[in-house]
Amino acid sequence: MLCATSRLLAARAATALPFHPRVRGRELHFPGPRCRGRELHFPGYPETPLGDLLAGRLARPSVLAGRRAILRRGRMPPAVGGGLAGSELRPRRGRCGSQAARAVGPAVATEATARSPKRPAPSSRRFEAPGRWALLALVTLMSFATRFHRLDQPPHICWDETHFGKMGSYYINRTFFFDVHPPLGKMLIGLAGYLSGYDGTFLFQKPGDKYEHHSYLGMRGFCAFLGALLIPFAYLTVLELSQSLPAALLTAALLTFDTGCLTLSQYILLDPILMFFIMAAMLSMVKYNSCANRPFSAPWWLWLSLTGVNLAGALGVKFVGLFIILQVGWNTLSDLWHLFGDLSLSMVTVGKHLAARVLCLIVLPLALYTATYAVHFMVLNKSGPGDGFFSSAFQARLSGNNLHNASIPEHLAYGSVITVKSARMAVGYLHSHGHLYPEGIGARQQQVTTYLHKDYNNLWIIKKHNTNSDPLDPSLPVEFVRHGDVIRLEHKETSRNLHSHYHEAPLTRKHYQVTGYGINGTGDSNDFWRIEVVNRKFGNRIKVLRSRIRLIHLVTGCVLGSSGKVLPKWGWEQLEVTCTPYLKETLNSIWNVEDHINPKLPNISLDVLQPSFPEIMLEAHMVMIRGNNGLKPKDNEFTSKPWHWPINYQGLRFSGINDTDFRVYLLGNPVVWWLNLLSIALYLLSGSIFAVAVQRGACLPAEVEGLSQVLLQGGGQLLLGWMVHYFPFFLMGRILYFHHYFPAVLFSSMLTGLLWDTLLRLCAWSLASFPLAGHVHTLGILSLLLGIAYSFYLFHPLAYGMVGPLAQDPRSPMAGLRWLESWDF
Amino acid sequence: MLGFLQRPVVVTADINLNVVALTAVGLLSRLWQLAYPRAVVFDEVYYGQYVSFYMKRIFFLDGSGPPFGHMLLALGGYLGGFDGNFLWNRIGAEYSTNVPVWSLRLLPALAGALSVPMAYQIVWELGFSHCAAVGAALLILIENALITQSRLMLLESALIFFNLLAVLSYLKFSNSQKHGPFSPSWWFWLILTGVACSCAVGVKYMGVFTYLLVLGVAAVHAWHLIGDQTLSNVRVLCHLLARAVALLVIPVLVYLLFFYVHLLLLCRSGPHDQIMSSAFQASLEGGLARITQGQPLEVAYGSQVTLKNVFGQPVPCWLHSHQSTYPVIYENGRGSSHQQQVTCYPFKDVNNWWIVKDPGRHQLVVNNPPRPVRHGDIVQLVHGMTTRLLNTHDVAAPLSPHSQEVSCYIDYNVSMPAQNLWRLDIVNRESDTDVWKTILSEVRFVHVNTSAILKLSGAPLPDWGFRQLEVVGEQLSRGYHGSAVWSVEEHRYGRSQEQKERELELHSPTQTDVSRNLSFMARFSELQWRMLTVRSDDSEHKYSSTPLDWVTLDTNIAYWLHPRTSAQIHLLGNIVIWASASLATLVYALLFTWYLFRRQRRACDLPEDCWPRWVLAGALCAGGWAVNYVPFFMMEKTLFLYHYLPALTFQILLLPVVLEHVSDHLCRSQLQRSLFGALVVAWFASACHVSNTLRPLTYGDRSLSPSELKALRWKDSWDILIRK
């Protein structure tokens, strides 16, 4: 109670200047010490004018501070964030004031009453609420103005627009594609393009291509719109966590004037969408935490379900959305844990709480997430560039694919002509051709490879191992191939048998070579393979497309597999096929039959083979995860390392290289970023000082107590957010880029805002005996705001585009601003 | 003063016969017939070569672990008088007579044997009964996988030993915290904790998991200490400082000490030199040092140098050129400048020599006195054998079309002017006026016209480029990367004016003299960095397994097979112990969760003094299992069953703890308790029986008939070798 109200007063003093000259005048009349006294007075007067002035939402925190004090002395120290919510579920307001007073200590309490000041002028309260709205509107306006300024520049493709714009077009054209990210973000981009009149005809071939007459502003505008909303969201989040307008304002300024966030928001990228959902989830979580004293009320449900919706959104855009889920999950768990520990709640109530969270934070997001995939698969029903990444069964769904609506025999029989596809992604079909392995590489026999494209050399005939009679002879009965049969695979074009022997494979030295051998189908016992279906019983028939088969070489006992390595020139840069003596079940050694021609069998429509939706979901995820893992950095390439990011070591070139180009360079505003970095260090320092002081049982004055709670709890949530959005990248093996850090920047900027406000308040408080000390806070915040705005003035060409000489040249607008040699603009 | 004269000298010995007996049987089980089999068993083939290197004091680089473990094994060899002369090339090869098999295997066996009494001590220090403590020790004693692993020249048993030692000494320390803080024994155990932790890390990087666990527990205890308001602030500060020194500073120092000794021992150059930087190589006896010894330090105009790429991936190589030119048209139809090729060549060759030339002068000799080249100077590089100048221009490189081609300039084509000025950028300079130094300086060459940087792309050229590696000019100067940085390896001052003389000079070996040594920290950081980044080709292995296979013991490793009979050694656990240890972990987790939930609702099922003990036992034992097991799910390297053994040891410690807890707190009547006791005895008997049945596969001392072997194959996934 103490701290919150005091902060509100100071907040008005610092931020409401342009709106309330009267308030300012009044504030100026109070010398420092008297101010303090006045603020300390409030616990004794629960219904102060300020209390009802800031009705509802703002009255709550005044209860809170006292409550926090109680909790801290309790047995169970409140966990970050959760304590806030958990504590408020026992609104024993009556005891609150007295307990707070006890926490503060009798001496302070009496001092407070003794210094009881006059009440604030009643006229000021009329402007309070509109003032706050006006401030929010101002912040929003600023953010929209900066994001939409020169949005149409440059009128060519920048950086990854080439991917995401293209994928938006795919949605409009309904062609199937493959991407390593979940579909929601690209669907939204596609939708925005569709609504703004983009027809999907632009090719998005490579960065630098001119858009010309194509309408691209709708898609950019959509991203910029979401990017602009980040700032009011951050503003509200910090306001909710700290109950301090200057802190929120500082945060908003940090983000508005950060050239990095600005640049990233202005193009057709997934990041603004991702950050939008992350921030929205954070905001709704914080809001819902502050509704915790009214569980199951309408706003409580609203914010809880909004949290769930936004989590689904974040995960639906990129898998890094998982990090915000971790944070919300942690918050929810500690919240539930405190509810559970509250003996005044019955188990039934706790159960209801649990059920509500399961419903809103697990079931709802999962349903929405699944729904995005359902829409994705429904929209993309035409064959496109992504087909090859998916299994044969999956491809059968896509119109235009040769498997679509095809009708082929369902079960494999002797004499069938088939193609065999590797289960591993992007490996292709078992292939052979009339070229021999070169001298010195195993036996000089015909090459066997895998090949991604469909041609006649992928066709094989299944034959019995012991007879050479033509199974297609109409007089013979149809004989199906069964699991465990010993077969021979004859290459249709060259009539050589699939063969293996004890020679080392061309690239993978520990495996055996696979060749084509024999003349007109007559070979030797090294041509015999046992066909096995994974997870099937002996004697089962083998289904086209659906059965996952392994071919085991009878003589050596090895398994036919593809190593995925590219053969040199002599192998036409197709992929190596080996016979591996390691019998582990890996995707390398699993195959399935795709095309199947057998005139003796009735063709059936492939529709019956269509995989179910859960199977499609699962496959799409497997392919995405493998695609993500496949994005490995190559040797001898400069890659961005996670430790580069917070120090703003290196930017990303969005557009243009030479001095005649229109250049955009993604780089954080160094002033903002370095301030953020410093703030994290300062936060850790001050946070641990407070934590140790509390643990040592030090008696803090009420004001400091309140501030330390804001710092430890509100700041703790933000720090956690920064950590979960940053540290996991150190563990990732995939290739990383600078822009991966931006979700973490949001959190660290919010932390900076909160921290500096709190520290300046502490400063003002500790200097209270000096005259003018009350202004330390105001001046500090103002100078920070001005400094940030000035740095933006300096660095804005990075985002809005530079033309002319490079930064080394003194005539350049960026001359002298290349503070680190690693920035190349 | 002379107090000892007035009072009798009394020695009171407090001998715990349990510990003595456990030590004795531990030694017996691990040391019995230690020198058998007299053949290379499994990974001995891998560690043995390093022991040989130590014996011969030849430098090597092994990315699998820090040097302390290797040094321990080498110590065994040293004590046994091993001369290092054995060719470690094949598992199963007979040891020659000069190999002291017994003493090579002694230290791991001792470590394994001492783990038995330590298990006893740990459970006792955790506050559980002697009975539970003896149980834990006996389980460790009869666990077949632990026996196998500690009887061979392998590192896991040493790792387990130091893990247990760290936990034990931390427990001793925290127990003496209550009655005698800052007493000698308090200090002793505290410091021993730190030392044991760093030894564990020094044996294998895996030890870091246990170190973090101990640090975590220590941090929680320290946090409670801060909250203890009976202590003065100063005292709290002293406590914290003591812990910080013992658990953070000392381990780092000890770890550095390992490397210091390692580098002290390995002073001769050897087969792995090439991976290290030139400066490091020059610090070893022989090898590069023999060549570079006595080279002039400062590169001057007119110097003849070879330039080695610092990154050295995929192979270490030197900037190279030769008479051949780039083909006019590449296979994919793109054109080239048809100028002389510049490549990176992984072998020493006379064509690797370049002459640093001042663009303003024509001579290729060094002035007297030599004029050194400094950071920021503009130079030309002349290829020694062909006297062409290093050049790059706006032509796409053969394999990396986004980069510029680098060539030695020939004026075939007048439309393509020479662009052969390079600005020298010393990366590791201390000031902007630094002189370019042989070996020590890492330099980049920035092309003056296009600001491209000379870089090794690493792609091997096709046949026309003799499969040498491609060198390109990279336009985007994105920060520091080793592939764009070069260092001078061989260097001499050019003296000859004429090309013929110069060629002769280039062919002759370098001489003169200065010696330079890197500081220990520089050598340490380079070696550590290379060890962490050296790429082991992740090959498949017949006996590799996944972490999921370990808990259920779905896999084994055949270590050795007798050349004639069917006697064989397998890494194969006692399945009863594995299953019940996993079960105990599960029971612990469930019970702990249950108690935790009950306590949150203020229902305390356990007595107040029992709860912290239960939590601490769980934190150390179940926690020790988790931290030593879970990280493997995130590792991409080839994994084997023996990686699970440290985790298993902790899990086994938890087993008697859980049993005692069940008996004390969950069995309500005396009858239940007796019944439970009987069950435990029966269970233990079965564990002993299984251990005894698997004994032939553990010690490999008895040849089994095929039917006996088949009978031992309890799981289909076990690979037991049966001679046909």
TrEMBL record, chain A:
Reactions listed under catalytic activity: a di-trans,poly-cis-dolichyl beta-D-mannosyl phosphate + L-threonyl-[protein] = 3-O-(alpha-D-mannosyl)-L-threonyl-[protein] + a di-trans,poly-cis-dolichyl phosphate + H(+); a di-trans,poly-cis-dolichyl beta-D-mannosyl phosphate + L-seryl-[protein] = 3-O-(alpha-D-mannosyl)-L-seryl-[protein] + a di-trans,poly-cis-dolichyl phosphate + H(+)
Listed GO MF terms: dolichyl-phosphate-mannose-protein mannosyltransferase activity
Membrane topology field: Multi-pass membrane protein
E.C. number: 2.4.1.109
Gene Ontology CC annotations of this record: endoplasmic reticulum membrane
Pathway where this protein functions: Protein modification; protein glycosylation
Pfam family, one: PMT
Function of the protein: Transfers mannosyl residues to the hydroxyl group of serine or threonine residues. Coexpression of both POMT1 and POMT2 is necessary for enzyme activity, expression of either POMT1 or POMT2 alone is insufficient. Essentially dedicated to O-mannosylation of alpha-DAG1 and few other proteins but not of cadherins and protocaherins. Transfers mannose from Dol-P-mannose to Ser or Thr residues on proteins.
Protein's UniProt name: Dolichyl-phosphate-mannose--protein mannosyltransferase
Designated gene of the protein: POMT2
Automatic annotation (TrEMBL), chain B:
A cellular-component GO term for this protein: endoplasmic reticulum membrane
Membrane topology: Multi-pass membrane protein
One Pfam family here: PMT
Molecular function as annotated in GO: dolichyl-phosphate-mannose-protein mannosyltransferase activity
EC number(s) reported in the record: 2.4.1.109
Pathway where this protein functions: Protein modification; protein glycosylation
Residue ranges occupied by any MIR domain in the UniProt entry: 296-359, 370-427, 431-491
Coiled coil: none
Enzyme class: transferase
Protein origin, superkingdom: Eukaryota
Similarity annotation: Belongs to the glycosyltransferase 39 family.
PANTHER family for this protein: DOLICHYL-PHOSPHATE-MANNOSE--PROTEIN MANNOSYLTRANSFERASE, PROTEIN O-MANNOSYL-TRANSFERASE 1
Function: Transfers mannose from Dol-P-mannose to Ser or Thr residues on proteins.
Protein name, per record: Dolichyl-phosphate-mannose--protein mannosyltransferase
Lineage: Eukaryota, Metazoa, Chordata, Craniata, Vertebrata
Chain's gene name: POMT1
